[in-house]
Structure formats: structure tokens, C-alpha cells
Amino acid sequence: GVYLAIAVGFSARFSATSPSILTTGPLANSWALGGQAFGLVQAGNRANFKLADHLARTALKKDPAVIPAITTLALLNDMHGRKDAAQKLFQTSLRLSRRDLTTHLWFIEYFTSRGDARETMKHYDAALRTSAAAHPVLTPILLNAAFDPSLASPIVDRLVEKPSWGPRFISQLASSPGDTRSLVYLFRVLQQRGYSLDAADRATVLDRAVKEGLFRQAFKLSGRSDSPTGLINSKFEAPANFLPFDWKLSASPENGAELVA
Predict the structure, then answer these.
(1) Mean pLDDT for the chain?
(2) Of the candidates 113, 121, 112, the residue with the CA atom closest to the CA atom of residue 146
(3) Most exposed residue of 14, 32, 140, 155, measured as fewest CB within 10 angstroms of its CB?
(4) What is the pLDDT of residues 99-114, one digit of tens each?
(5) What DSSP assignment string belongs to 172-208?
(6) Using CA atoms, how far apart are residues 261 and 214, in angstroms rounded to an integer?
(7) Which of 66, 43, 40, 60 is closest to 51 using CA atoms?
(8) Contacting residues for 163 by C-beta, under 8 A, at least 6 apart
């Protein structure tokens, strides 16, 4: 799963350390043992899983709150098909800390497999807040999910809470491949829920909609009324970046009109 794809915490720090040194030398403390155990599981060599189990249990005897040791045993249970045992261990990890990335990544897969979009999104949010390492793994998945009508609502619910990852995600969403009609709808819902869209992101979506002939949808997103608004930039200031449906000045002396639809 994705939770094994990211190197975090103690596993990265102690992965090159000899287990014998950790169990007998000056690093023989609970968190060092837990980190080494997690690193062995993350490396994926099944020949070392028994040692990982031993190190994790040794760490927990020293300190029952060593999160890398708890997640090591949870992952080992998961790999052996003992999902209930894995879930209980990850719940213990979650009670001890809301910032453990491995725990959130596991719950993302767990709730996704059960079709629980809101719980899945809760852990996406926590994972993206927890570590920058999660972004390249999770953001592409979330961008695809935003175009799924069954998932768009819980994503919007999180975005309107203004998480730290929200503005960057919305900018990526504006230019990501996908159904433009769905994208316009999602931006409209965000706008209706009181989210202040970045002007450049909104302009990108409006341009996409107009180019694809979605004039009604684009007009609704533009927020303009049916009556014409005043001339934009009427004081002959520096040229502005005009949005679709804006009036703009022309250097041409002739009057004219163009039928676009």
C-alpha cells in the first residue's frame, strides 16, 4: 500500500544501523528499536519480518507508547491478513498521536476499501497536514477523486475549512485534466460555500469552460448578473487580465461584434 512507499521518522534515521548494535549498544532505547523495526518492515524483505516483530515487541516492553513499534506490529498483522488486529493497533497509534503519517495512510486505504468517503477524506487531510512527503503521493489521487461526484462533496467540505494544503491543491485542480463541466460545478460550490477563490485559478477555469463552449456554466461561475456591468478599466489604466464576459477597451476605431454562440 501507499503507507509503505514513504520513508518517515525513525525508519529513515536508523535503517542503515545494525540490529545487534541497537539491541546491545548505546542506542538500545525504545524509540531506536521501534524505528529499526519499522525500517525493516518498510524495506519489504520478508526474511527480516521476524526480527522486526522481535524489535517492536522489545521496544514496547520498554515503553508502550513507542509509535514506530506499534505501527510495525500493525503492518505485520495487515500483511498476514489480520485486518482487525491491524486496525486496533493503528487506532492505538492514532490515540497516541494525530501526526503519525503511516497511521493516516493506512486508514486512507482502509476506509477507501469500505467506501467511506468522509472518513477517508479526514485522513487525507491529516496526512497532508502532517508531512510534505505525503503530497506527491496523495495529491494526484485526490485530484482524480475531485472529479468523482460521490467524492466531490467531502472534498469540498474539507476545503471550505481552509486547510494549509487547500490553496495549492485548488490551483493544481484548476489546470488538471478532467471533465471541465464537473470542475466548473466544483468551483461554483466552493464559491457558494463562501470559499474565496484565487482570481488566477478562477480565470483558468473560466477560460477552460469558454473554450469548450460551456458558456452558461462559465457565466454562472463568473458571478455576473444578466444585466451588463460597467466598462472594465474605463480610466485607461494599464491593461488588465480580463475574464470572459468582461467589457474591455479596444484600440480599433471601428465598431463591431462577434457571435460566439
Answers:
(1) 81
(2) 121
(3) 140
(4) 999 999 999 999 988 9
(5) HHHHSSS-HHHHHHHHHHHHHTT----HHHHHHHHHH
(6) 10
(7) 40
(8) 125, 128, 129
* Distance in angstroms (rounded) separating the CA atoms of residues 235 and 232: 9
- pLDDT, tens digit (0-9, with 9 covering 90-100), for 1-56: 443 333 333 333 333 334 444 455 444 589 999 999 999 999 989 999 999 999 99
Separation of alpha carbons 2 and 109, rounded Å: 8
Q: Answer left, alpha or beta for residue 8, where phi above 0 means left and psi between -120 and 50 means alpha.
A: beta
8 A C-beta contact, residue 74 and residue 86: yes
In the chain, the N- to C-terminal Cα span, in Å, equals 48
Which residue do the cell numbers 491478513 mark? 81
Three-state DSSP class for residue 147: coil
